[in-house]
Input
Amino acid sequence: MFGWDEKDGGILKQLFNSEVSLMKKLLIIFFILVSIAKAENKPYVLLVSFDGFRWDYLNRGLTPNIDKLIKGGSRAISLQPCFPSKTFPNHYSIITGMYPENHGIISNLFNSIKNKKTYRLGDSVQVRNPEWYLGEAFWETAERNAIKTASYFWPGSEMKLEYRHPSFFKEYKKDTPYKERVDGVINWLKLPMNERPHFITLYFEATDDAGHDFGPNSIEVDRAIMKLDSTTGYLIKSLTDINFLDSLNIILVSDHGMTNTPKEKVINIEELIPDFKCRFVETGPVMKIDCAHSDIDKIYNSLKTKENHFRIYKKENIPNYLHYSKHPFISPIIIIADLGYSLIDNRVAKRKVNDYALGNHGFDNSEIDMHGIFIGFGDAFRKYFLTGTLRNIDIYPLLCRIFKIEPRSNIDGRIENIEFILRKDFND
Output
């Protein structure tokens, strides 16, 4: 359907009006048709993220447009994030197939022991600094295989290194209207066939913002769900208008879920160890403590006796299922709050109570409230198919299978854990 455009027609018109010999004309036509056939054989995939869209938000009866994708494709009951169940680590796990301890983005905020720099969501310089990103994103893998890619927002896509970002990308601007984001994707798909990207990412943050500010059970979250569903409807209509819906595979995911964090469930860790000089890295569901090497055991033992609604670990003893011990920038002491509790220090305690988030994420990734969504729609996916929980690290090898390219050998994701959602003949 998309193998011909005005540019191709213009080339052939010039060719037939030229004085080139018939044999040369036929050879040129042959090579044009071969290149068109090769491009036509490459699938199109749009990977969409709804930040903070919890697995059960789909059950509220607010998503008629998303339901259309579900009914015509494959859906998982939930999508399990990696630990910590935070935005940047999990978006980069989705796109690399690696645990945060291996791809380098170990949290939304962390420090380098190498050069004392700090990685922080709001610091665009560091967010675009390729030194932090150890894994290979799928758009890098695809581009190495002559597959053009694009990103309308995705953590890691703005790296200031030419060969590490997509061919087309937008620098993140939170106030960009959702319609404008969809229109940007549509405009990429309307490019001449040899210029348009075959893999595109798209990102929306509405449910995460509302979940933090008002809690997951609020009317504001319901409105955010409806906004994202309306955006999905606009995306479907826009793709239909350019005759592209039937040629595109849509993968709709979220990076994590959300849970209630009432102000009554706050624990000041600094108050529990007033005699130690520490640096408290992050607050909320997970807190990390940097301190002198000689104080590690003392701080750990002191907090261990006061363990109540939180778990404390030394880095080397954190449970294996969390996959959070290998990276050198992970602090020597890690504290994980029980679901719904918030860990703070004195600095945060001085703020007004209203500053505390009413909803949060980052907790143990085995908690179902931390799980997100996975929907696959398009020719690659089985129809009317429902499965159990999938892991987000398996999405990268899934993308490689769809595009029939080799994944990196050092990934943590496994195609055998997810390939069954693809059409049987797609795996042959």
